[in-house]
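quick one: zinc ion bound model?
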Amino acid sequence: MKKNIQEKEIIRKFQRAQTTNMVITGVSLFILPLLVISGLLAEHNQLAIEKPLLYLCFAIIAIMFLSNIFLRRCPYCGMFMGKYRFFPSSCPNCGVKLK
Ligand SMILES: [Zn+2]
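yep, here:
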């Protein structure tokens, strides 16, 4: 019984992390093209905002990268799962159920 509750808690934690990661990735993928477009428009209109836009692009890419590193981990053993399937049903390291 106790093990069951712990399992559910791990699954819940993992799913919450995956949802957060997906939202961060989705929002970033939505913002990046907008930044590129506004950068091109700024260049066309000779506004000097390319540099801040470029930094913003790097910041967003960094956030995406970090959220992938920190959120795509097994909530039980901490194993990084980026190189495995996108939605693993169990941890490839400790075998804990994630679905
Ligand atoms: Zn694990």
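The helical segments are 2-44, 50-71.
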